[in-house]
Amino acid sequence: MQNKDPFSNLEHAEAFLDSFKMGAERLKERDQELTERYVKNMTVFSQVMPHIYEELQGYVPKKRFIYMEESGDLNIFREDIGCPLFSTDPRTQAQEKIHHALSHPTKTLLNLERSTNNDSRHVFYSNKILDEIENQSEGLKEQKEWPQFVGAAIVFGLEFGYQLELLLQQREIKHLYLYESDLDFFHYSLFAIDWENILDTFNKDGRTVHFFLGIQPDEFTDTYLVQLQENGYFLAPETYLYMGYSSPENNKVFDYFKKHYARQVMGWGFFDDALIGIAQGLRSLPKTKVAHFQGRDVLPKWVTNVPVFILGNGPSLDQGVELIKEIRDQVLLISCGSTINTLSKLGITPDIHVDIERMKQTVDKFLFLDKEYLKGIWGLSVNVMHPEYFDYFDRSGMGMKPGEAITSLILSHARANGDDKNYVQLNYCNPIVANLALSYVHLFGFNNVYFMGVDNGFKDKGTHHSVHSGYYKDGKETGFQTFQEAKLVEREGNFGGKIYATGIMDTSRVQLESLIRSLNKRRNFESFNLSDGAKIEGVTPLSIDDVLITDPVIEQQRVIDLLEEAFFTESPEAVLHQTPDQLLSVVDFQKISRTLQQGWDESIKTREDVCNLLWSYHREIYFLRGSVYRHIHDLLIGSFTYSAFLIVQFLFKFEDEAETVARARHLFTPWCEFLDEMPSMLQQASEYVDQGNDHLITFYNG
Predict the structure, then answer these.
(1) Is the pLDDT of residue 9 over 70?
(2) Residue 208: which residues within 8 A CB-CB, separation 6 or more?
(3) What's the pTM value of the predicted model, to 2 decimals?
(4) Which pLDDT belongs to residue 7?
């Protein structure tokens, strides 16, 4: 909320100096009062949030030009911008800013639309909720301002807390997230405002306040996501955003938050998908090996220094074909998804192939390939993959996909039976295949990684994959997939310019960036993006013409032998020898599904009532994470999140609270109907292997 009128001349500077001297005198006169407030606030934090107390105890601020305005409010001269943080009346300025923000709200947004050509029960009931939203919206006037109660809000920049005090006097917030990168400002807030009242407000059942203090802008989203998972992703797309003051740090964290927003609103999963994962995982276990971790010292150093090329099927793959052929004997090639068909046409055989999409369509593309071509390729995937995938490769392996019911089942039953192997969960392996490839790179400890054809977008809708790919025939789309009507976002290109991406492509880029941040902490890790696609933060852009591989010729099969020996083991016996009924706890699932249908009665009259009820359901599911029923959490959480979000979105869209809440009850009914149906679906879980269709066989030019 900085004062945006810096002193432009000596006269103004002298006037401010006089004002500052008087302000410093006022500060001395009120020293006892300010000190008592500080001690009181620190005492409260020591009791309620001791981690913040410990961080601030004995803290010495770097910004020292603190003074008191005539109004009695604190102010500070910011040397970095050459003017005070506030005007001469900080609270009045704060009131004006709060008033404007409440009447012109900024909030997160997600539009879920009806799905067609999908026969899953999740989609069926989601469509029923969307139908009810359309019916129940009739005649209601849309909300224009912040409602009196909001489910979640993020404040970017606390300053001394004046705006926060005023905000909480005028609005009630269930989950409040407070970001302040400058610890000096938070330190001075302990003298400026009464934190006890604020903390008491959130010391109620179902209300939470989360502090993100002194962290860098690019760290906020990761730490926020941890809290968001605990509080419920269903409120993420209905969160009010408030910028406390302008600064390079606040502007950067806000931009980063927007750019990585997809991580909050995609990848929730859903019930039918989880059942498919269970069925396919159980059938795949006897066919393949499972990834486990034994430490970083199990491989010779020369292996981790081998250059690795992750090959995607983007349009820029075509620019690197000659380079791949030239350096083929010096590198390890990992093909991603449909890239393998393209490479086959080009006469290039990868060393490792990865796939992640669980549908049968994923394995149908292998029907276009000669069996001899696949010999020698190491097929890697995850434990939700279609079981036929592992039939195409002489040797294969799978890692655990985080957040999946099949993963929870495997791990819990293995550990319950004394199996203490460190089975690997491949973090950041979603949503598409390049993400899985990088997850395996992370597991194996490779230090030199090149992305080629990993475009995460395209420059025009007609050129979205390699021209040699199965998406085209004679230079025209085959009808297998088109992006002509797709909703696209604009992103920075790897070599400048703009790239256009679908939501899933953009999410893939965000996930790559998240894992790259971790990999870049390794002492010897380097990565290069040769793709003429979207920029991947943390990866060095490198023109194909500038690639220089001076490494010696390597024996790729020897490398794969060592990787398999070091990182893969036989599937856990404890799971192989149990039936699906023994594994799934159907009776306990029925009890939980009944609990999730109870509570919405005539006592539910306000938005807060509904949010509290939905939050109680979320907690009921969330606490299963730490129990033997973790797989029930993984089965339920995705479909619950979608349904709860649709209810919350409707809840805050309209002005008339009582009428909106009354009508929202109709949106809850389809969710209860789905809960009624789920147990019978779970009893048939072993049959949920995807049967596929003939779409790829008909249209793909493999």
Answers:
(1) no
(2) 174, 175, 176, 202, 227, 231
(3) 0.90
(4) 47
